[in-house]
Amino acid sequence: MKAGLEVHQQLAVGKLFCGCPADLSEEVTEAFTRSLRAAGGESRAVDVAAALQASRGLVYRYEGGPSSCLVEMDEEPPHPLNEAALDTALTLALLLRARPVDEIEVMRKIVVDGSNTTGFQRTALVAVDGELEVSGRRYSIPTICLEEDAARKVRESPGEITYRLDRLGIPLIEIATGPEIVSGAEAREVAEEIGALLRATRRVRRGIGTIREDVNVSIEGGHRIEVKGVQELRLIEEYVDREVARQKFLLELRDELGRSHARVPADPPLDVTDLFREVASGPFSGAGRGGQVVLAVGLVGFDGLLRSPPGSEERLGREFADHARSVGLRGLVHSDELPAYGVSEATVAAVRERMGLAKADAFVLVTDRSHERASMALKRVVERARVALEGVPGETRDPLPDGRTRFSRPLPGRDRMYPETDIPPIPITAERLERLRSHLPERPEELEARLARSHGLPIEVVRQLVYGDLVERFESLARSGHPAGLVARLLTQDLPAVSTGAAGGLPFEPSLETLGAVLAAAKAGRIAKEGVPTVLSALAAGAPSVEVAIERAGLSGFSKEDLIALVRKVVEANAEIVRARGEAAFSPLMGDVMREVRGRRDGREVSDTLHAEIARVRARSGP
Amino acid sequence: MSDISPHDAWNELSALPTGQRVELSDAEGHTWSGTVVPRHDFSGDRVLQLKLESGYNIGVRIEPTFHFRLLGGSPTAAAPTSRTPTPSRAADAGPWIALLTTGGTIASRVDYETGGVRPVKEEREILDFFPELEASGRVRIVPVFDRLSEDLVPDDWRVLAEKVVATFATGARGIVVAHGTDTLGFTAAALSFLLVDLPGPVVLVGAQRSPDRPSSDGASNLRAAVEVAHDSRIGEVVVVMHAAPSDDRFAIHRGTWVRKMHSSRRDAFRSRNGPPLGVVEGGKVVLHQPVKAPAAGPPRVDGPIDTHAALLWFYPGLTPERAARFAEGCRGIVLAGTGLGHLGSDHLPWIRAATARGVVVAMTTQCLEGNVEPYVYSTGRDLLRAGVLYLGDLLPETAYAKMLWALGHSPDPAKVAQLLAEDRAGEFHERHDPRETA
Lengths: 623, 438
Description:
The complex is a heterodimer of chains A (623) and B (438).
Chain A: E1 2-10, E2 30-34, H1 48-55, E3 59-64, H2 83-95, E4 99-100, E5 103-104, E6 107-110, E7 120-134, E8 137-148, E9 152-157, E10 160-164, E11 171-176, H3 184-200, E12 211-218, E13 225-230, H4 236-259, E14 270-271, E15 293-299, H5 316-325, E16 333-334, H6 345-355, E17 362-368, H7 371-388, E18 395-399, E19 405-410, E20 417-419, E21 426-427, H8 430-437, H9 444-455, H10 459-467, H11 471-479, H12 484-501, H13 512-523, H14 532-540, H15 546-552, H16 560-573, H17 575-581, H18 586-597, H19 603-621
Parallel strand pairs in A: 3-10, 13-18
Antiparallel strand pairs in A: 1-11, 1-12, 2-3, 4-7, 5-21, 6-7, 6-20, 7-8, 8-11, 9-10, 12-13, 14-15, 15-17, 16-17, 18-19
Chain B: H1 9-13, E1 21-25, E2 31-36, E3 47-52, E4 57-61, E5 67-71, E6 97-101, E7 108-110, E8 117-119, H2 123-129, H3 131-136, E9 139-143, H4 154-169, E10 174-178, H5 184-194, E11 195-196, E12 202-205, H6 218-229, E13 237-242, E14 249-254, E15 258-260, E16 269-271, E17 278-281, E18 284-287, E19 300-301, E20 309-313, H7 320-327, E21 332-337, H8 348-357, E22 360-365, H9 378-385, E23 389-390, H10 396-409, H11 413-421
Helix pairs in contact in B: 4-5, 5-10, 7-8, 10-11
């Protein structure tokens, strides 16, 4: 297999073509609706993907607020390109040893899914032919682009999609690698390295969705598949591995279909609504009423090949269903899964008879209130079935949270870019490159070495800081005088543990001031370092201040005297064991005591107290 | 350039035709390969613009030491092909309307040589943009001009008016005029005075985004304009454009009331001093104001126009000498004065001299809303005594168009003044509703 990545990173330098802030906002002050038409580019050929989208006839609703202006509304021509964004892209190009172009021309890339009010995304090629080394392997970086982010989808209802304009126009750096990645694990590693380089510029936005990856995967005999918009870096590996498995499955299926002399008849969908009138439950129960139709197509020689083969999670039936969904249906039913869904053996037989199908043939059923939509869905299914005879269709797929992917649209064609005539070409001067070259940021490996050296931290911890995008916060807190080890532990261990456990789905992102206050409380001995996670959890649960969080976590008011009293109580209760086992009693008793202390006193203090108390009891009883 | 040697690669590269594939290599051996695309007007010196295989265009600065070789094939320069067959003119079944094209954004496409947009000329090209026009079978296309509206002159208004009359004579029920938006307000006002006894609507329409963009407002504006042109209640000149940023609501403006109030918004066109006549919503024409009904008689062009007139915007620092020079050779001057219709009092001498010569001097307000009123301040009273004619709530542009029309009707300044003061096309508002004016 081979895979390549396209990494898209949002920049925190304002928007690319207007003066709006690059911040997301829930405030909506403006709403309007638009429709888009497929328009030709330079050669006027209407792009396949563009035509497909336009054919859906959707209405797009847009919501604007404090992070959008007339430019995002496509009511004003773009302003000149954001120079800080271009500097950042060029800086990255230099870090990747790429060659900047002499003159940048901003292009329009046709995108008519409504995510751009203009119907195109503005994008520019900034540099080519870079390279990256990860774990001793070299990867080519053919292109580095600067482009505008799309609006973000907030709602979808039949016939209408709602987008928020806040994200539209945020600068994105797009870094493409060559197809030289050979495993899912390697893909993740390369993505992490590129992420660290991007953050080295200190001009990137952070948080969920600020870095997104497109993963291109193909295997020998397969086809390029683009998994678009992966936000979870840790899932890249899984998407790649599963996509490889899916393509292998499709190639084996092709051979299987060949052996069974499968073919896809050219017959139009057949209306079999009358055969389903008696179905009492399931998706077909409304057949024949309120205009609900049932349409069928037959697939010669496909019987048994629509379901998953033993030991595989892949099945052609799901591929069909994804295509049916792409025109707005909820799904479909095929003969390999029948009888089921309230459809009896007799009905299945009746369908087969009506369609003149043999035992080795399969059929696919869809039901919908719109005859047109139902037959459109079957048309897509038939197209997909034809490609199954040839192998793997090239397509764009959406990543799902469980590591699977789903058909989104055919791979876009090539004729989809034309010049953005509202923006003149931008020369990249030698002086500009010289200025950037003399101020290059620290590379991740240099940063690692410096942090390890100056803070005396183990290299594994430093790497967690660098790859976890934690360096800025670490340095800021360490500069304020907090012990480096404690800060590193807070950022790399305590905080992630709370963040993933936070309720309500919203990430827990405390301010630097808050983190500083927690560290100060630990330093002053008001909480133990073991108590830090508990205090963070209380903050994540809504405690308005660190003081209140300490209170709510029940960590306040446990004095040294309280600790001594507690230890004494535990040791006295276990005096028999202490006398019998001596120092060996320490471990089990320490566990008991720590459970009671719950982070209110420092672990070392607890252990010292316990040792002293054990010694006292043993001395009292004598040898 | 003096530093170009006879062997300079630029000599040959700069002469390559568009569509030629080429591979360039610099002194360090770095190569670029792509297709030559038209050079951008604002591209730098010695920069060759290439479309790379990826589809991106870039500029390569050609050093004298560059090597290059020509490559075969031209994958990215496919010849333009029409998406629609030759238009059928068989719109005989049922009422039909005519689309008169004059150029402008609504009928323009991107010009990749200049980087700007250029008007299209061919009927076929227009149908390429708006295939639904042909599908409706109710529209015939009549090309008139192919110019951006800033290039249209007052004599073109008359040519256009003649064309409207001639087209009505062939049986059109209504007429849509596709027009550039920059001076659309002027043309709408001029046609309002030039066209009389209209048997149906004359609807001016434009676009703020060119039709080669997926988000163009041209198609939806045109659809709405076609609806209005079919409306049998209307016998006057109107403008139909977006009423808001949304693509689903279109305002119908009286030709004499409307003004382009924004340089780029879709809803740039606004009626001043009151609400528009109506809207098109959900494909339906809804009228909110009384409109002029269609006339029974044949339409005609009401007289010639005289272009010996000027529109002068007063501003602090405008000297009487400069203004007087500006007025030279004019039979009529429209002033866009401050506030209620004022000019600096040092301008009174040249104005007195002009009116004494028989020049018609008319006053409007650069506030763009509200009446001019000479009696409130002494400046106004002085201007009135100097012979300035106060034109109510007419927009400066409307007053200018009306001035040209009125001058064409009489050599007598008094008669011209009388025509200017009369309501000819519903251009004056009798009342100003506080809820409808900003």
